[in-house]
Amino acid sequence: MTKKLNIGIIFGGKSGEHEVSLMSAASVMRAMDREKYNIIPIGITNEGSWMLYNGPIEKIESGEWEGISNKLLQEDPQHSVFTVIPMGNEPSQAIVPGIPPYLGEQIDVIFPVLHGPYGEDGTIQGLLEMADIPYVGAGVLASAVGMDKIYSKRIFEMVGLPMGKYMLVMRKKLRENPQVYVEMIEENFSYPVFIKPANLGSSVGISKARNQEELLKGLQAAARHDRKILVEEFIACRELECAVLGNDEPKASVVGEIIPSHEFYDYEAKYFDDGKSKMIIPADIPAEKAMEIREMAIKAYKAIDCSGLARVDFFMEKETMKIYINEINTMPGFTKYSMYPLLWDAAGLPYPQLIDQLIQLAVERHQDK
Ligand SMILES: Nc1ncnc2c1ncn2[C@@H]1O[C@H](COP(=O)(O)OP(=O)(O)O)[C@@H](O)[C@H]1O
Ligand SMILES: [Mg+2]
């Protein structure tokens, strides 16, 4: 029998997508094959504390895990970064029952099921690189570029991927003189426009402005989240998504369509509308359009030097059927019912096997270094 792998599942995190991560991580843990893996759940609180958790999975989703976890990192992280060790003066009391078998054991692979800043942006990936531990998903560079909507657009432009018109607004300059930007935007775009913080996800801080008043409000709202703001022309479109999996020879899944319940796919529509937003898999589009999207998805993936997984999102202009790239997500929503796993399921790769492959890819990438 091969040795069981110790898999650290990191969830929560210091981002606006903390709750989404709890759902994704709980789903991953439920699906993982316990014959192959020991699961070591590691939560990061909203405040940034790392906690070792050993309770029921439901309490991850409900948020109750925080109250029944043990702080994992000492003030001096050298002692403990990724080895599970007892904390406090009386380890027997400090540790939740069930954890001791793992004490002192090395974690073999980390699956950072974290979305957004500090999870999907290269920061935790950098920490894991330094700790020399294999981890699921994209490396530092791809994560950072994928998170930054401005930089990913610049890279996509370099490889000739089509995209809508956009403009970068710097918060500092905006605050000094908002009128200059309003004029510049009105000269270059017609309403409505989309306004987004450069570095968030899950539609946090995003708005659609139909006039000057909404533009100013939207810019200010985005400026609360980021020092870089993106303004984009509005595209009347269908939203299509493609899943990519692999390291040096990535494969693209079938294409799926999102039909948002709200005017656009905002935070509420994504996570709290009780399934009124619809996912259609495979999308009802002509075969050559699906092929074009799959090729573009792989091109985008390679352009940012991605590995592991990513979901690449597209807009298909309703009138012309022209495809534009919107964004790449290096740690897409990962519950059993999220688009990424469902796209692979439709391609013949069920959720538990998808997780196996991601762990395998993490090990391969680490060996390849
Ligand atoms: N330029 C655009 N034209 C039309 N709709 C857009 C545009 N940009 C964003 N949207 C809408 O807003 C949603 C969120 O924007 P997106 O750039 O995907 O941000 P996030 O990273 O938060 O998912 C999209 O899914 C889409 O519904
Ligand atoms: Mg999106």
From TrEMBL:
Keyword vocabulary terms for this entry: ATP-binding, Cell shape, Cell wall biogenesis/degradation, Cytoplasm, Ligase, Magnesium, Manganese, Metal-binding, Nucleotide-binding, Peptidoglycan synthesis
The task this protein performs is described as:
Cell wall formation.
Q: What is this protein called?
A: D-alanine--D-alanine ligase
Q: Which residues bind Mg(2+) 2?
A: 327, 329
Kindly state which reaction or reactions the protein catalyses. 2 D-alanine + ATP = D-alanyl-D-alanine + ADP + phosphate + H(+)
Coiled-coil parts of chain: none
Pathway in which the depicted protein is active: Glycan biosynthesis; Cell wall biogenesis; peptidoglycan biosynthesis
Entry EC no(s): 6.3.2.4
Source organism, top-level taxon? Bacteria
The primary location reported for this protein is cytoplasm
Cited Pfam families: Dala_Dala_lig_C, Dala_Dala_lig_N
**Can you tell me which residues bind Mg(2+) 1?**
313, 327
The active site is formed by: 17, 202, 338
Subcellular locations according to the entry? Cytoplasm
- ATP-grasp domain location is 153-360
Q: Name one GO biological process term.
A: cell wall organization
Q: Which residues bind ATP?
A: 149, 194-196, 202-203, 232-239, 326-327
